[in-house]
Amino acid sequence: MTLPLRSLLALACSLPAFAANPLPRSTPAAEGVSTTALHAFISAADKEVDTMHSFMLLRHGKVVAEAWWQPQSPDKPHVLYSLSKSFTSTAIGLAVAEGKLSIDDPVLKLLPDNAPASATDHLKAMRVRDLLTMSTGHATEPKLSSDVPWTDSFFAQPVPHAPGAHFLYNSSATYLCSAIISRLTGQSLLEYLKPRLFTPLGIENPEWSTSPQGISAGGWGLFLRTEDIAKFGQLYLQKGNWLGKQLIPASWVEQATSKQVPNGDKPDSDWAQGYGFQFWRCRHDAYRGDGAFGQFCIVLPKEDAVVVLTADTKDMQHELNLVWNHLLPGFKDAPLPPSPDDDAALLKLSASLKVNPAHVPNTIQLPGSTPKAK
Q: What is the distance between the alpha carbons of residues 152 and 137, in angstroms, rounded to a whole number?
């Protein structure tokens, strides 16, 4: 059943949450967030991003602002595109902690059944670490199709650069991580993560597209609700600890979200601040998982905050700029005086949001994967 739009800004704590074990709610002022800044951000996002789907802000572990652009809603799963990659990285970290592999293991060692008969020295030298950091040594990303097994396509691609020395955004590298998880555990990436990540976080019914070979796509294809994404970001903000239990080793969180390789030298670009293990470094000492058309899980450790955005835009940098320009100045070091009038205005704005009916959805031509496989 599709429910009406709910913009639950903690003042609406009595409204139902649409996730198991919902995150706690609070007011912006109680958590030191300017309601004026939130109003400015939502207004700007509504006017300048074509088109927003949802927004959620966590401060000190509590939801202080959330909004959906109709017909989007709290209970509706959203495609994550490449934000899926950060979940795949998490699976590798868990497998490392369980002793199933090392990130310095050669890829061919872990997928021997798919290894080509004759492998170049560069291919032999490629490690799991290089998959995680998008530094496989490829000059162009392998093309995947429904006609050839995806691991075969990956291994058939020339590797002209030494692995670890050349950054190239490479979704097929993430797929290899998923294939490695499947081979080592006998489970799909989705099956592996359910008891270790999704169930402890209260994330119900996650879905993940698969390759024609039945392997979770890894680099894309995960479907989650906005609050599910927020839980994932909060888990990383808390260094992998959730309700007193260490779900992910803190050391993995530190490695995955730190700059592992350079990826550009443009100071004003959030795509040139360094890359971790399937996480992007941002300006303002933040990091994020992100996906095409404006899917973001932004973690701001200094502000003790998580920002989640889903959208359908071609200008993702502008979407991030709105966060830096409007939300970032709104974080304060102490609670703020209550402002019922500002809170009411924010609720009114949030309740009025709608997707532009004239908007033509953006699309990506993805390989022949099986959508939303469970």
A: 16
Distance CA 344, CA 67 (A): 14
Please give the model's pTM, rounded to 2 decimal places.
0.94
**One-character DSSP codes across 285-318:** T-EEEEETTTEEEEEEGGGTEEEEEEE--S-HHH
Bridge partners of 241, per DSSP, are 246
Tens of pLDDT along 336-368? 999 899 999 999 999 999 999 989 999 887 776
Question: pLDDT tens across 2-32, in order?
Answer: 333 333 333 343 333 455 689 999 999 999 9
Q: What is the DSSP string of 25-91?
A: B--TGGGTB-HHHHHHHHHHHHHHSTTEEEEEEEETTEEEEEEE-BT--TT--EE-GGGHHHHHHHH
User: Which pLDDT score is estimated for 19?
Assistant: 54
Structure tokens at 348: 């009114």
In the block, residue with structure tokens 């995960």: 222
